[in-house]
Structures are given as structure tokens and as C-alpha cells.
Design a protein that fits this description.
With 339 residues, the chain is of the alpha/beta class. The chain contains twelve helices and twelve strands. Helix 1 links the parallel strand 1 and strand 2. The structure holds nicotinamide-adenine-dinucleotide.
Amino acid sequence: MKIIVTGGAGFIGGNFVHHMVNKYPDYQIINLDLLTYAGNLETLKPVEDKPNYKFVKGDIADRSFVFDLFEKEKPDVVVNFAAESHVDRSITDPESFVRTNVMGTTTLLDACRTYGIKRYHQVSTDEVYGDLPLDRPDLFFTEETPLHTSSPYSSSKASADLFVLAYQRTFGLPVTVSRCSNNYGPYHFPEKLIPLIISRALADEELPVYGTGENVRDWLHVSDHCEAIDLIIHKGRVGEVYNVGGHNERTNLEVVKTILKALDKPESLIKYVTDRPGHDRRYAIDPKKLETELGWKPKYNFDTGIRQTIQWYLDNEDWWKHIINGEYQNYFDNMYGER
Ligand code: NAD
């Protein structure tokens, strides 16, 4: 089996490449990534010499490049992680989100139907459902929850999902979609909440928390997400959407305080900053379909997973310090002011 994994130099795609290369030595895994600011080949160091792994640099929205690659490789499966993924960036530059997340997806879909494919899997997000009120802990997103996006990021991901499902209906393309809650774990780019807080707390720097920190996110360890996608591409039903989440809801403030406690740092580092426009209040996934249909069960609870993740950042300072010292620094200064 030959699988093209797009966005495999990013956080979740990188973890997925590790998972697949190690678990399936007889599969060929091709990592197609543009290496934007979020792509980092250092993440692939542990697998780069394996015979069943190959990296190809390229843009999923570049039609002639994608078609040439499919002509040459004739993949059996495509798993699309490649995306502009940061909500804050989508507020300052929505167009790049349309280009990669929507046009990149349709380009891949067109290549898949031209060259024939056994499975196209779209890695999507629970953010396509919008948000839930904070005072209704009984409500969860199911696969039937209407799409109701809040940000340019989630709008671009919802658009892509609609194209993917339409290509199944119109062209009979064998597709699946997964919509996952917030991931955490190794190789997470340090602009996202958990690695941002870990790296800044270690340097005794202020910790920016949006609004009052009450927004609730449903955290899932990245390896549980990878396992879910592995199951869906092998056993998921064509044309179906599967929600992925582990019932680990925490307010942002709780997450920050958990990290501070684990690192033995004071809560006085927390600095509340002006809330993000349109900030979603609560995400919470109902993963029943994935559990009952495919037998998926997350291995990590949040308390164990976050402890291991903090330890990973302590053991792998080189990985994230390279990022923080580079282009990321300018971006951070523009968003939150000089350090
Ligand atoms: P990321 O930003 O860490 O990685 C994205 C990768 O895509 C990078 O390596 C980047 O170089 C690459 N890329 C960007 N534009 C490209 C293009 N035009 N062509 C080829 N490659 C390109 O993202 P992530 O957090 O790993 O998220 C991966 C996927 O999972 C995204 O589709 C995202 O919407 C989805 N998702 C993320 C989360 C989360 O918590 N991070 C949760 C649910 C779903």
C-alpha cells in the first residue's frame, strides 16, 4: 500500500507519519509538505532513514505539481493533514486559508479521481461545528450537528469537508472525514496554547491567556488521534464522518495552571490579554460512532498525557528552541508585543 500523507512535517501529520512508518513496514509512506512556517523536517528525523519513508516538498494547491506526483507515484491512499491551521493567523490573513485548505483540498480530490484511489481521508476539526454554550455541559457535537463556523479557519475547513463529501456523492470517490478536538503532545508548534505555555513558563516569561481563560477545549493526545485515523482509513465506511474526542474538557485557565504546577512556576506569570474576536466558548465531542463502529478507545487521559507531554518538551528543548529563535519570534512579537 502506498500512502501520500500531506502536511506530514506539521504537528499531527508528523506524529501520523511516525505511527504509520513504524507500524506498517510494508507500506510506502510519502510525506508531501510545503514546509511553511509550521512545517519542520526535524520532526521527521526519527524516521527519515527508514526504507518505507520518503519526503517530497510541494504545494497541495499547485495543480500541475500534484498531478505530476500522482502520475509518478500512483498512490492507493491519500490522508490530507496539510492546512493553514492557526485561528489567529486566519483572522489576519484569511486568503491563505482559502488557498491551502479549500483549493488545496479540491486539487487533491481532482488528482484522486483522475488517477483512481482506494481511499481519500480528510483530517478535519470539531471547529466546523462552531461552539457550545458554557452553561450546557450536557451538549456535545455529534456527526449530525450542523456546520456553524466562527472563524475564517473553521470556515475554510468546513468548506473543504463539503467538497470532500460532494466528491463522494457526485463522482463516487471513496472518501472519509474525521473531525477531531484539540490535540496535544510531542512536536506541537509553540504558537499553540500548551507548547506556548510550557516554553514561556520555562523561561519565566509572561503567559498570555485570552479573556478570562474560561473557554473550554476538549483535549486529545495526538497518538490517540493518529490511531483513530489509522482505523478509519482501514475500516471506516466510505462517505462517513467520524468525530474524534476523548471527553477531556478543560478551561484554558485550568490547562495553564496544570502546566505551571507541574513546572513549579508561579501563577503570577499569567497575563490576561484581550480576547480573540469571535472566540469559541466550548468544544466538546461525542465520539460514540467511532467507538461503537470501529472500536476506537483513547489510551491517554489528560492528566497522564499532559505530564508526559511536559516531560517531552523538557527532554527536547533543541526541537522547540530552534523554532522559537527563528521566524516564529517575529510573528509572536507582532501578535503579543515584544518579549
Ligand atoms: P500544523 O500547522 O502543525 O501543520 C500543517 C502542515 O501543513 C505543515 O507542515 C505545513 O508546512 C503544511 N502545509 C501548509 N500548507 C501547505 C500546502 N499548501 N501544501 C503542502 N503542505 C502544506 O497543523 P496541525 O496542527 O498538525 O493540523 C493538521 C491537520 O489537522 C489540519 O488539517 C488541521 O485542520 C487538523 N486538526 C488540527 C487539530 C489540532 O488540535 N492541531 C485538531 C483537529 C484537526
